[in-house]
Write a structure and sequence with these properties.
Arylsulfate_ST; iron; four-stranded antiparallel sheet; about 475 residues; 4 helices; mainly beta; aryl sulfotransferase activity
């Protein structure tokens, strides 16, 4: 059943939620929250973790029926994303004080990156890490569950996506709020780093795009008090590639897929690329443009129109290589948001050329990284919707491949999680009831599903199917 069809009549439960439905400001304006669809026999059952983006609510762990089984109110207070490790350990950003919520490496105003045990004792701390959008642990490339590499090592190396204030007049005369990736050892010492602005010439911008970046480099106030910066790339994910069959089969031709290499998503530039760990150079890239005349070359072979057939990425999130042990391992999966992003020539929708790419629907795309052939897509089109905008989150969001072949999708701007089958059936759906104080939004950056045995402190919960009503006949009774 399609979400919007179901939601048209699904209002009776909404009255019991903490947020008044008429203040939810969504379309439609009245709908239930919590678990709205659940088929236990078709799901990969477990717990789901997410940060609420509400400072007073922090991070929440729910079962398949939407019951809260654990909440950490001082972890990821509008920072993201929290991650659950095997054994009930939680990792994420923690504010050392309420006003310290910066996202700059080693800045006194920044958050710490911590790991705490189930009893909420901090067992590891990286002070002033300023982590934003992503981080990874040694031994698990992507930060979500795969049977081949459980997420269970919080003591080893860590990869952290953070920021650094720098100047680079080649890009713009404004201060850069530059994306900065560090790898730290078990003692928190930096052993590797990468700064986005050092690789400007490797990103294949047109001269027109370069001129637009110079004038309009997404310059705004940051979370560091009193500091403005140009968030010109807005990197929103960073993960290791991890062991993969491409590299195993051809370590020379597929050297770009070395397990230690790092894949990142640059939202504002519409670029997904792979960084060579040893040389720090960009060795594989899609974007920033996907025009029919664009040629894409890999391993000495030119693939004409490959980018065009893959389709334009706009404001994408959570680009990663599906890890070993899961269906589709080795393919790259991206939540391609749409919305607005990119730098280019002025047009009617973007008169200054800033965020020149525009599209009013989202899609989750899985593709072969050696030739860009699409393997699978979840979108309004594949769901059979006439209006593709009914699958849409213009910012945040993610996709996690599950062991049974299903995909857990976070449509983040509307606080919606959906587990979908390869044939596009929605077998689990949850709507977050955690709204900001104003009630304007219930966004969730990224949700993760973990197996029950990740949390031995809890007994496995009972699982009860949730069957939505026929929305064409379900009515809200009038008050008598």
């Amino acid at each position: 059943m399609k979400r919007r069809q179901f939601l048209l009549g699904a209002a009776a439960v909404a009255a019991a939620t903490a947020v008044r439905p008429w203040k939810a400001l969504a379309f439609p304006t009245v709908y239930p929250h919590g678990t709205t669809i659940y088929d236990p026999n078709k799901c990969w059952n477990g717990y789901t973790l997410f940060g609420t983006e509400v400072p007073s609510e922090g991070t929440v762990l729910i079962d398949m029926n939407g019951n809260v089984v654990k909440q950490w109110k001082n972890m990821c207070q509008a920072e993201h994303p929290p991650k659950l490790l095997k054994g009930g350990y939680l990792a994420g950003a923690m504010r050392p004080a309420p006003d310290k919520k910066g996202r700059v490496w080693d800045d006194p105003s920044s958050t710490d990156l911590v790991v705490m045990d189930w009893k909420e004792n901090v067992v590891r701390r990286i002070p002033r890490a300023g982590a934003h959008h992503d981080f990874q642990f040694e031994g698990n490339s992507v930060g979500y569950y795969t049977p081949a590499a459980p997420l269970d090592n919080y003591k080893g190396k860590m990869l952290i996506l953070t920021h650094k204030f720098v100047r680079n007049d080649k890009i713009t005369n404004k201060m850069l709020y530059d994306d900065y990736i560090v790898e730290v050892d078990k003692n928190g010492k930096v052993i590797w780093d990468w700064l986005a602005s050092d690789h400007f010439d490797e990103m294949h911008f047109s001269e027109t795009a370069k001129k637009t970046i110079r004038k309009y480099p997404t310059y705004s106030m940051t979370r560091t008090p009193g500091k403005k910066g140009a968030d010109w790339t807005h990197t929103n994910s960073a993960s290791y590639l991890g062991p993969n069959h491409w590299y195993t089969e051809d370590p020379i031709g597929n050297a770009a897929f070395h397990p230690d290499n790092i894949i990142i998503s640059n939202r504002q530039t519409n670029i997904v690329c792979i960084i060579d760990k040893k040389t720090k150079k960009i060795v594989w890239q899609v974007g920033p443009t996907f025009y029919p005349e664009d040629e894409w070359t890999f391993n000495g072979k030119t693939h004409k129109r490959a980018l065009y057939r893959l389709g334009q990425f706009i404001g994408q999130h959570h680009a990663h290589m599906i890890p070993e042990g899961l269906p589709g391992a080795g393919n790259i999966m991206v939540y391609d948001n749409g919305g607005f992003a990119g730098y280019g020539a002025p047009n009617q929708g973007a008169p200054f050329g800033w965020s020149s790419g525009r599209r009013d629907y989202s899609r989750v795309v899985e593709f072969n990284p050696t030739n860009l052939h699409k393997v699978w897509e979840q979108s309004g089109k594949t769901m059979g919707l006439r209006d593709e905008c009914k699958f849409y989150s213009s910012y945040v969001s993610s996709a996690q491949r599950l062991p049974n072949g299903n995909t857990l999708i976070t449509n983040g701007s509307v606080g919606q999680f959906q587990e979908v089958t390869p044939s596009h059936e929605i077998v689990w759906e949850y709507i977050s009831p955690y709204y900001t104080k104003s009630g304007n939004y219930n966004l969730v950056y990224r949700a993760y599903r973990v197996p029950y045995d990740y949390v031995p402190q809890l007994e496995k919960p009972e699982e009860h199917a949730v069957i939505p009503p026929n929305n064409t006949t379900w009515r809200i009774p009038a008050q008598q």
